[in-house]
């Protein structure tokens, strides 16, 4: 198939050609960026919390006086331990995807004015570390002797474990074990590093801070009470949580069960990411609608061209062109137009991406999206041109001899 | 002539139903997507307190120590008890209110209702006149109640309906946190969106059910909801009045620009004075935003919503380019017919008008379709889990905007094809047949 005559014909329809090229370019730009945004969102929802989510549930109680906290802890721990199927129950201040509780700024020495970042402290009573199922990569897990009473929201001093991501941020080139982090005037010595541990709510300061968490072993008491971590086999978890809520009504009738904070971790996770999933769904809807409109536009315009050129097509057929030649002509024409559009669209896609990067926490558009976007649009163009092109190929040669 | 053009347009559109449907569909999809997202954006970025928003200001000071000091940083988003009380008692503004959020356990006298928690606002008396809060029964408390830590409460209409079946409950006693409060007022329905005066518990959260004097809440150590930012020695839950923490919101009403300027100067002077006294360490760093400025500063409108609006605009653009192409095809196909009209004496202008009427009809039809799609879209948005979802409703101004946008955009899209179709030489068209 020769390209020269196709280009020559297009030059006679500059305006219409330009319009399709523009439409394809816009579609290409929006398509690449929307796909990238979807991928970005879905990647966020795959966040590894580092804990055994499917076996864990959170139970939050409010409305009790701090003076009764110790008594409440004892009643809840004793009362829930006997629920059939429960593996463990322990006191904790927060869980991943739940309400954040211990968010605070830290420093690397007592007197430096420089903040080392804002992290989340998980403060957990006996058994909570094991229940979470955190994976220790270096150092040791907390022991009973590490635990002391909580002053306001942290013990006065304690050996702590940090996530690998936080260790890499604080001490990029050094062994974190034995190092000290300071919160207010209190030192916390790092005795272990866990593989992953996501902070409860979103990372203040972007995705890279998502795992800036510290686990602090502590003794339950006046300042550590009301939030309980239940562990059970995944298939029993929902029932165990239901039983636990029912039992609370008996053993502590004076407290209020906070429904939002009393869910299984899979439920909390689901709730946490639903905005992201909704956004991804909406983007997908836009992409589908966009492709549909573009395809319909190509069908409409090509149909018009075919109708306009009926006579020329008849002449070509009369002069010996086969049906395949006519089909190929329209396909080549579409391929060329779409290619121009893609070329322009890629520049536009990068422009939009640069704009989005300044407004949102988005990385640069990976180059891989461009060939994929191009393939999709080429395919779409060829598919939508097929019906009008087949109609063109069906024009009989005898048309050439008619005067109208 | 308009009626004739309209008739011609309808005939022409009927002649090629598939193409017409295609154009209307493209416009409707674009307009529908655009209006859905723009309505959400409009609702979320709207003025929460029209008429008052330019007179209400949010003063910010920087009482922190020198740790982590950077000259370009903004002052903290809230004020300390000491500064809040100082500024409140200085009475330099037309009105001023110091407040924080909280939650109180309510113990109804009727045994039929179980005790429950209700969101509360602990504030000083000016809150009600300053924010123009409508009262159904009774009245708000006054300054003397603030100073005397009176056990008085104002409750919302919703809570009044729940506890007193909507009857005038002023003068009744309500047991909260084991303390008896006297109800002095009941609010009429009132909801500000965004929840501008305290953004700590969700920008689009509902208004509180119980309003109590701030001093009373502090005396009784009622539970607070909100954010506390501390430095130095850190927080001390028992002595929040002296702790180096910001945890209160201060709003002031300043009726004239001169007063705004004067108040800002006052804030700077106050900061300098506190620095001389040794309480403040940083150089004076103050902000005084009005309501809309404060909402902007806090980036209240979710980024996702803006992104969706831009995306929908991009989509509308694609739909319009598509319509331009299709209209061009349609108009050029009728070159012969237009040639005849031109040859019979119609001027270019008249042919142009005729074609514009046709694109206007498409725009109007597309607008109706877009409206239906937007209603569907908003219904889908309301099904979403976000806390602002329930607010997504089309109002009259957005309804009008839908049609303006649809017709305007389609007319704009019709300009180029119509102009191009007017360029055909009548003689050439007549000859070729």
Quick tags:
heterodimer; A: about 400 residues; alpha+beta; 2 domains; 7-stranded mixed beta sheet; 4-stranded antiparallel beta sheet; 11 helices; elongated; B: about 425 residues; 6-stranded mixed β-barrel; two-stranded antiparallel sheet; 14 helices; about 15% strand; Putative ABC transport system permease protein (chain A); transmembrane transporter activity (chain A); transmembrane (chain A); MacB_PCD (chain A); membrane (chain A)
Specify the overall morphology of chain A. elongated
Alpha-carbon distance between the two ends of chain A: 29 Å
Percent of residues of chain A in beta strands? 15-25%
Sequence stretches where pLDDT stays below 50 over 5 or more residues of chain A: none
Distance between the termini of chain B: 28 Å
Number of helices of chain A: 11
Instruction: Give Rg of chain B in angstroms.
Output: 30 Å
Pair with the biggest interface: A-B, 48 and 48 residues
Provide the number of structural domains of chain A. Answer: 2
Range of helix content of chain B: 40-55%
Short overview:
The complex is a heterodimer of chains A (404) and B (433). With 404 residues, chain A is an alpha+beta fold.
What does this protein structure show overall?
The complex is a heterodimer of chains A (404) and B (433). With 404 residues, chain A is an alpha+beta fold. Chain A has helices at residues 4-11, 14-45, 69-81, 128-132, 164-170, 237-251, 265-272, 274-308, 310-318, 323-359, 369-393; strands at residues 56-62, 86-91, 103-106, 117-124, 136-139, 158-163, 180-183, 186-194, 213-217, 227-232, 256-257. Chain A folds into two domains: 4-45 and 275-401, no CATH class; 64-254, no CATH class. Chain A is built from eleven helices and eleven strands. By secondary structure, chain B is an alpha+beta fold. Chain B folds into two domains: 2-45 and 301-432, no CATH class; 56-297, no CATH class. In chain B, strand 6 (173-176) and strand 7 form a beta hairpin. The longest helix of chain B is centred in the C-terminal third of the chain and has 35 residues, at 348-382. Chain B: Pfam families: FtsX, MacB_PCD. Chain B: This is Putative ABC transport system permease protein. Chain B: Its main location: membrane.
């Amino acid at each position: 198939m020769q390209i020269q005559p196709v280009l020559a014909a297009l030059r006679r329809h500059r305006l219409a050609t330009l319009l399709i090229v523009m439409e394809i370019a816009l579609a290409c730009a929006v398509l690449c960026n929307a796909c990238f945004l979807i991928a970005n969102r879905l990647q966020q929802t795959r966040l590894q919390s580092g804990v055994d989510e499917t076996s864990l549930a959170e139970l939050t109680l409010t409305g009790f006086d701090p003076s009764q906290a110790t008594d409440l802890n004892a009643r809840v721990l004793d009362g829930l331990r006997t629920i059939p199927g429960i593996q463990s129950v322990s006191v904790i201040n927060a869980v991943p995807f739940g309400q954040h509780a211990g968010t605070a700024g830290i420093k690397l020495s007592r007197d430096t004015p420089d903040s080392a970042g804002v992290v989340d402290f998980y403060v957990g009573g006996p058994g909570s570390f094991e229940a979470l199922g955190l994976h220790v990569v270096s150092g040791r897990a907390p022991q009973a002797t590490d635990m002391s009473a909580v002053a306001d929201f942290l013990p006065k001093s304690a050996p702590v474990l940090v996530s690998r991501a936080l260790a890499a941020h604080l001490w990029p080139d050094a062994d974190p074990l034995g190092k000290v982090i300071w919160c207010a005037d209190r030192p916390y010595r790092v005795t272990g590093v866990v593989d992953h541990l996501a902070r409860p709510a979103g990372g203040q300061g972007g995705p890279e801070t998502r795992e800036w968490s510290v686990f602090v072993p502590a003794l339950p008491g006046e300042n550590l009470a009301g939030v309980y971590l239940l562990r059970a086999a995944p298939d029993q978890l929902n029932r165990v949580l239901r039983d636990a809520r029912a039992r609370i009504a008996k053993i502590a009738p004076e407290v209020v069960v906070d429904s939002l904070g009393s869910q299984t971790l899979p439920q909390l996770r689901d709730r946490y990411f639903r905005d992201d999933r909704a956004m991804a769904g909406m983007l997908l809807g836009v992409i589908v609608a966009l492709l549909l409109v573009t395809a319909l536009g190509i069908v409409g315009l090509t149909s018009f061209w075919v109708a306009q050129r009926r006579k020329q097509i008849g002449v070509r057929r009369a002069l010996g062109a086969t049906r395949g030649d006519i089909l190929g002509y329209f396909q080549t024409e579409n391929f060329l137009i779409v290619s121009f559009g893609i070329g322009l669209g890629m520049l536009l896609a990068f422009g939009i991406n640069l704009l989005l990067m300044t407004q949102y926490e988005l990385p640069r558009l990976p180059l891989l999206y461009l060939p994929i976007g191009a393939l999709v649009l080429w395919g779409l163009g060829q598919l939508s041109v097929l019906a009008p092109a087949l109609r063109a190929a069906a024009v009989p040669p005898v048309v050439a001899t008619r005067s109208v | 002539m308009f009626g004739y053009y309209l008739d011609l347009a309808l005939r022409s559109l009927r002649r090629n139903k598939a193409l017409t449907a295609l154009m209307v569909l493209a416009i409707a999809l674009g307009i529908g997507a655009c209006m859905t997202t723009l309505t959400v954006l409009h609702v979320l970025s709207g003025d929460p307190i029209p008429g008052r928003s330019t007179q209400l200001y949010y003063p910010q000071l920087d009482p922190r120590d020198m740790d982590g000091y950077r000259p370009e940083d903004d002052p903290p988003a809230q004020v300390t008890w000491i500064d809040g009380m100082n500024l409140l008692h200085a009475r330099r503004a037309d009105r001023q209110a110091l407040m924080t959020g909280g939650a109180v356990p309510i113990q109804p006298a009727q045994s039929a209702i179980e005790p429950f928690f209700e969101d509360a606002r602990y504030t000083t008396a000016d809150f009600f006149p300053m924010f123009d809060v409508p009262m159904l029964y009774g009245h708000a408390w006054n300054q003397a109640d603030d100073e005397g830590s009176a056990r008085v409460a104002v409750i919302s209409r919703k809570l009044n309906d729940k506890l007193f079946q909507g009857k005038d409950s002023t003068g009744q006693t309500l047991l909260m946190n084991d303390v008896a409060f006297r109800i002095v007022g009941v609010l009429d329905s009132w909801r500000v969106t965004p929840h501008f005066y305290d953004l700590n518990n969700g920008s689009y959260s509902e208004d509180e059910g119980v309003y109590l004097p701030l001093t009373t809440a502090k005396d009784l150590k009622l539970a607070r909801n909100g954010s506390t930012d501390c430095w130095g020695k850190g927080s001390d839950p028992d002595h929040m009045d002296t702790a180096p923490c910001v945890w209160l919101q201060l709003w002031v009403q300043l009726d004239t620009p001169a007063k705004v300027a004067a108040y800002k100067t006052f804030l700077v002077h106050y900061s300098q004075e506190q620095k001389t006294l040794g309480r403040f360490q940083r150089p004076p760093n103050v902000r005084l935003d009005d309501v809309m400025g404060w909402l902007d500063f806090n980036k209240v409108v979710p980024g996702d919503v803006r992104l969706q609006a831009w995306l929908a605009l991009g989509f509308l653009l694609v739909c319009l380019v598509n319509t331009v192409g299709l209209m061009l095809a349609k108009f050029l196909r009728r070159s012969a017919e237009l040639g005849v009209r031109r040859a019979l004496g119609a001027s270019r202008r008249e042919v142009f008008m005729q074609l514009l009427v046709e694109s206007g009809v498409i725009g109007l039809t597309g607008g109706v379709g877009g409206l239906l799609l937007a209603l569907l879209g908003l219904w889908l948005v309301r099904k979403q889990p976000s806390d602002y979802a329930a607010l997504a409703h089309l109002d009259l101004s957005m309804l009008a905007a839908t049609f303006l946008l649809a017709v305007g955009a389609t007319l704009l899209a019709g300009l180029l094809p119509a102009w191009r179709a007017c360029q055909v030489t009548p003689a050439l068209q007549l000859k070729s047949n």
